[in-house]
Amino acid sequence: MSAPESGTPDDDLHAHVLRQLRRTGIESLAEPPSPEQFRALLRMVSHKYAESDRDGYLNDRAWEISSAEMTELYSQLEERSATELASERDRLRTVLNTTTTGLCLIDSQRLIREMNAAAAKYLSVGLGDTYGMAIVDILWGERADEHRLPFPEDLRDAIVANRLWVEDFIQFVDAEGEQCTVSVLYSPVDAFRSGGGVLAIQDHTRQSLAEANLEWRARHDQLTGLLNRAEFSRLVDESLSSGDPGSMSALMFLDLDRFKNVNDTFGHDAGDSVLIEAADRLQRSLSDSDFVCRFGGDEFVIFVGRVAGRVDAQRLATRIIQLLREPFNVFGASMVITASIGMTISEEDITASEMLRDADIALYQAKNAGRDRVSAFGSQLRSNVRERVQMERSLRTAVSRGELTVAYQPLVRAHDLSLFGFEALARWQEGDRIVPPATFIAIAEEAGFIAELGEVVLAHSLELIREFGPPEDAPVLAINVSGLQISRPGFSRRFLRQTDRAGVPGTQLCVELTEQALLTDTAVITELNILKDAGVAVALDDFGTGWSSLSLLQQFPLDRVKVDRSFVQPMITNSQDAAIVAAIIRLCRTLGLEVVAEGVEERGQLDLLRSLGCDLIQGYYTGRPMVADKALRWAEGRAVPSQRVLAADRDVLR
Question: How far apart are the C-alpha atoms of 119 and 127, rounded to whole Å?
């Protein structure tokens, strides 16, 4: 055997065989191997073949196992995909069926492939009965009348041509007979790769109702359902501009008398029920061409489109007042409420705002005349209003320039006519005329500067008190306070700051309020208690003229009561008035209150009041209102010993 050439593959083979032979103990091939070595070589070769067979088997087995696992895994993935796809499909159907928009999926052959519950309801079909049906047959076929939706014919053309189509606010009546509003949309989509689209039906009924409700609220009063101010003015202007030439209309401004007492006594719910009932009565009293508005609070405005004249309008206004006089049922209780009406008749080229202005002026006159009546606007009333406006301007100027003066009327003790104090009374002289206090004080209250007027009176009064000397020698000074003043938060503290700066103790002062002022606000009690704590006395003025006088005596912190002159002056000749005064005096003594009799002008009145036990007297018989200097001189003779002296010195005392 010749040796192989060096560098051939056999060289590598021989090196491998030689390495195996060496493992059997043969060092070289120079000599033949022994039988033991040869058998060892065969065993080794056999072992290698066995290892090779085992490795092949294991490799084949591994491939078999991997193939089975991959098959199982693929099967599991396939099942999971189908489950998840079904779940996604179920979720999609759930979403589609819960939406209020009706959706219908249509293929290129115009056959239904999917429909949600809302669409089935609109079309009056079963949810699972429409798959594969032609949409045209459902919308315009024999069953078209069942769903009652008026689908236009041009929608059919759009579906056939597969083009976009939209129609908003289609009106129809549903199966329950309710009026409904929907919008319909057909939108082409390439869901089937060959055409088709989605038919959508959107319910706008709630939206339409909400919009209608908002529009209604913008034009009406929410409590009574009547027209509101803006809509009323618009309709009046429209009616006036479109009326026949020469035709007459009437506008009435109505106010419920003392309606605030209803809220204060029974609560705002009771007040609301009265307003609702009053609105219903007003509507029932008018024709269809007339309309009424709640102007605000307890104010109503009525427009009568056509009247024969002023007498005809007056007759209608009187009938309305009589209608409102009928008792109101308030939470089971019967309540009588009156009303005042200011009325105006239309003129050429007049507007709603001008008629409202004139009727409001007439209403003011009706209230001043005693309420529960009708007052018609006229030229004289307009002149009075102009005069009142001018007076308000002049009064403002008089207050700002300090031109107002204060007069002081004495209050004397009934038993000996000695001086007890003075009542400070505001006075205003405009040019050559003296304006009555009741007139300009009412103007100041309406114009909103009564507080400034009150501060002027208090400042003058405090100057006079200091002139009297030490507090133990000085008389009590009574200051009138209006309801608007004392209802302002912090009135009492401002009052006391002003007296403290003047160095006048509260014990020298008394505030006088009318019954109406006490009923202004529940906060009045708090303000009065602050004054009482500072030593200021509180007097109830004009007692007997209000509607709840007896309750006021217990409810408010009073020191004295002033009996109104309307009972005092006729008491000598009228036994009923004398009995009323006697009853008031007995009642006040029981409650520990002093009694002041106003309007004493005769000796007989004085003697009768003394016999009844009246404490204090005020009136022309004992002293007229006087300027500060005269009041100081008058006070020097305050301890009058007898009526004889008083009569002899009548000129000085007055």
Answer: 9
Q: Are residues 493 and 607 in the same domain?
A: yes
Residues 311 and 408 in one domain: no
pLDDT for the residue 647: 44
The encoded tokens of residue 161 equal 């041509």
Neighbours of 531 (CB within 10 A): 24
- Signed CA dihedral, 72, 74, 77, 79: sign only: negative
In the chain, how long is the greatest CA-to-CA distance?
A: 186
pLDDT of residue 293: 94
My answer on whether 121 and 139 are in the same domain is yes
Question: Does residue 600 sit within a domain?
Answer: yes
Do 163 and 79 share a structural domain?
A: no
CA-CA-CA-CA dihedral for 20, 23, 26, 32, to nearest 10: -40
Q: Among the three residues 316, 345, 377, which one is the final residue of a domain in this structure? A: 377
Structure token pair of residue 207: 């939206």
- Does 82 share its domain with 178? no
Q: Could you say which DSSP state residue 362 is in? A: H
- Which residues touch 628 (CB under 8 Å, ≥6 apart)? 406, 408, 460, 463, 464, 467
Question: Do 489 and 577 lie in a common domain?
Answer: yes
Task: Select from 94, 119, 137 the last residue of a domain.
Answer: 94
**Residues paired with residue 461 on neighbouring β-strands, in sequence order:** none
- Give which of 345, 344, 325, 343 is closest to 335, Cα–Cα: 325
CA neighbor of 601 nearest in space, from 585, 582, 624: 624
Residue 9 within any structural domain of the chain: no
Per-residue model confidence as pLDDT tens digits over 92-143: 666 676 677 888 888 888 898 888 888 887 777 777 777 888 888 888 876 6
Q: In which domain, by residue range, is 164 found?
A: 99-209
pLDDT tens-digit series, residues 271-302: 899 999 999 999 988 888 899 999 988 999 99
Element (H, E) at 329: strand 328-330
- Please spell the DSSP secondary structure of 157-200, one letter per residue: HHHHHT--EEEEEEEEE-TTS-EEEEEEEEEE--TTSS--EEEE
Q: List, for residues 600-620, the tens digit of each pLDDT value.
A: 999 999 999 999 999 999 999
In percent, how much of the chain has pLDDT > 70? 80
**Judgement on whether residues 80 and 197 belong to the same structural domain of the protein:** no
The tally of CA atoms less than 13 A away on the side-chain side of residue 493 is 4
| Entry field: residues in the chain | 654
